[in-house]
Amino acid sequence: MDDTIVAISTKLGKGAISIIRLSGEKSIEIVNKLFKGKDLTKVKSHTIHYGFINDGKNDIDEVLVTIMLAPKTFTRENVVEINCHGGIAPTLKIFELLTENGARIANPGEFTKRAFLNGRIDLTQAEAVMDIISSKTENARKMALSLVEGNLKKYINTFRDKLKYLLANIEVNIDYPEYYDIEEITKEQLKETIKNLEQDLKELIKKSEERQIIKNGIKTIIIGKPNVGKSSILNTFLKEEKAIVTDIAGTTRDIVEGKIIFDGIELSLIDTAGIRKTDDVVEKIGVNKSISLIDEADLIIVVLNSNEELNESDKYILNKVKNKNPIIVLNKNDLQLKINKKDLKFKHIVSTNTNSLEGITPLKNEIKEMFKLQELQEEDYTYLSNNRQLILAKKALASLKDAKMSLLNEEPIDIIEIDLKEVFDILGTITGESYSDELLDELFASFCVGK
Q1: How high is the pLDDT of residue 18?
Q2: Are the CB atoms for 174 and 414 separated by under 8 Å?
Q3: Using an 8 Å Cβ cutoff, are 21 and 7 in contact?
Q4: Rounded to an integer, what distance in angstroms lies between the CA atom of residue 41 and that of residue 55?
């Protein structure tokens, strides 16, 4: 990290301004070569300066340059940000001049990577930076901001501090084996502390898994035989005519998608082709696609005509989803009911119609209840936010259970220590106390170049 990096931090295109960012020891020196205005090597930190970028012969653009001196910067290195006009030509010309004068083009996420490597943030905070950028709902923003502020880092460190205390006590036992009473006291402490730590870690994992929908949303498919009102339900949810609705069976032959923010969560709705036996080649492809989506969905909405008895297509669909916990929608409830609810062996059954926006309120309420969306409106957003963190937390929990089992089996105390050290190290991997170069390369590869 001895070199100075540069990247365009705003979207390249027509706009009011572009921001070009540099980080590294020579950031100020490189920009000063091109800046016509104050001597930037002599200005105070965290100040903004007006002038022009000049290639030695001609002015390129009128700019504002922000100077931030280490260590009080995002990367804990000297950082310079150039605000120029937002056109493609001036932005690229300034960027080109900076690279010609000694700056290296940054890799994806390299600014955030440097912030991590220089100790400004931990890995959970680094991951949360990208979560803020990609957040689509208010709940997702709050969750990401909680992680950026270091709340998960503090929670994990508190957990590790308790383990550190246990490990210190075990070391005393190993160093002074002749004191039997010390070992007995330590084992009693271990029983109580491991029990509490296991409970806390289980609760964190459980809540984090439930709240993955804050970040990822709910992928929802609407399935049923042709002409039961699937497309009408999609359109009513979206409040627009996204899907074509006719009385002709088989109108929808491919999937139709739409997204809404529903009670603070992104709901990705997919209207599928009606499932039935057909000789139409195109429709058959759509039917097979509909069936394949069943295993990919977080939520399956099965739509039935309430005014028709169940036929073979209905029974085929219900059999396909019998182990998936779907919501069964008896649509067109303004007509005579001809389906016996007792024949439907499912937990979630609602009646709807699409004659008005209020007609699908029972379905909306069932989704809220099913995913406990009301519980997501809370103040504490300290959760594991991605699969990497969840997998590591589960590994730590498994090692903690091994330690508890060793204790119950009256294994030697140094055997218990091995499992507890493993828990301590795994939790450290979540925050980045220990890491591999491969992990960092993979993690930051998905970042924006200018971040």
Answers
A1: 95
A2: yes
A3: yes
A4: 19
CATH label, 126-211+391-432, candidates 1.20.1560.10, 3.60.120.10, 2.40.320.10, 1.20.120.430 = 1.20.120.430
Separation between Cα atoms, residue 211 and residue 392, nearest integer Å? 17
Q: Is the dihedral of CA 394, 397, 403, 407 positive or negative?
A: negative
CA dist., res. 447 & res. 450, Å (int)? 8
Biggest CA–CA distance in the chain, Å, is 87
pTM, entire model? 0.78
pLDDT grade, residue 246 (50/70/90)?
A: very low
| C-alpha triplet 93, 98, 99: angle, nearest 5° | 100
Contact 139, 262 (CB under 8 A): no
Architecture, CATH, for domain 215-376? 3-Layer(aba) Sandwich (3.40)
How would residue 174 be classed by pLDDT, with cut points 50, 70 and 90?
low
pLDDT 10s digits, 176-228: 555 455 555 567 778 888 999 999 999 999 989 888 888 888 999 998 888 88
Residue pLDDT, tens place only, 86-104: 889 999 999 999 999 999 9
The residue assigned the tokens 């499932």 is 275
> For the chain, what percentages of helix, strand and coil (3-state, to nearest 5) are there?
50, 15, 35
Q: At CA 290, angle to CA 288 and CA 293, rounded to 5? A: 110
Whole-angstrom Cα distance, residue 404 to residue 420?
10
Helix (H, G, I), strand (E, B) or coil at 15: coil
Residue found under tokens 């006590």 = 169
Token pair recorded at residue 392: 């590591």
The distance from CA 211 to its chain's CA centroid, rounded to whole angstroms, is 10
